[in-house]
Amino acid sequence: MRKILITTSALIAGVMATENNNLTERYKASTLDEAKNIVTDIEKRPGNAQKKKLYIFDLDEVLVHRIGNECGSPNFPKWRDLFIKRFWKDKEMRPSFGLYESIITRDHIKILVDKKMPEYVRECQDKGYKCIILTSTYNKVFKGGVVNTTHDIYKQELENFGFDFARSWGELQPKFFGLKAYHSRCYADGIIYAHDGKASNKSEALNSFFSYAKIDPDIVIYMDDNPRNLDDIETLMKTKNQHFIGIQYNGYKKLPQVECYNELAEGKRFDWLVKTKKWLTPHVQHCYKVNGLWTIKEATTESTDTEEQNSEIDVTFKLCKPHGTTISNNETSFATLTQSPCEETP
After folding, report:
1. What is the pTM of this model?
2. From CA 331, how far away is CA 295, in angstroms rounded?
3. Domain segments of the chain: what residues?
4. Which of 161, 171, 249, 262 is the most buried (most CB within 10 A)?
């Protein structure tokens, strides 16, 4: 095996040529435009125009960015422990665990990593690409939840953002790849869920989907933020002698994320959840650059109690400063910042 290093504006990490002349290429892209340029270059190569192409997208941090300790934050493990303690270890609360988990999963803040991504996916589909999502998420069943499964939530949020991955697969029906329904990796509506309730395995899930959908693409393009996932799928494609294009996409790094964890503040959010059956989330437009950090304010606006309608839950989250971005002065006037700091809980 020989390794060929190429330098371009798209930050090519390297091109691997195997003994059977099956190319494996790895790239890095920090913007969607860089990723598009990589794919356009591949399309223009002699003979590639007529080849069957599969374009695989990771979900979180490639298509969708989730904001909050309850999802994308590095503080998620601590938040999850607190949630389990409050709603599972408390036997009186346990029957409602699925309800509250489904509300949080449905209502937490999520934004597009790049607002042009839905249009780009449609353009790829128009060119004849088969497009699909491959996520490490578990398609969980919410017992007593506001929806039945994680997929019900993800399907709706993707539609709200303007994605239609099911379009690539026509009448292909949902499929569980394991022996037990809802306890296995699965496919539904253009999404492959690689977690079986115990562990995530993207290559195994994708391989199962290949067999189920009876597809044999000539070129597989995979966009993921995690290089280990790219390694995993690259290994699978080598066994199939298929041309693999792996793009490590880091567009999410320009976006804000919760930096601090305040157990008292999170407890207040849980209290509000139990009382109102609503998850208290920050308004994304209430973002400020304060002392080099981004801050968002949480305000309660829905309540049947007049006194609480006029009050505010006094919670402030510090957000990591987005990489390479700035905020202008006129963007700091959305609302008044809370006076209480967000402090690290021991």
Report:
1. 0.79
2. 12
3. 2-64+110-253, 256-332
4. 249
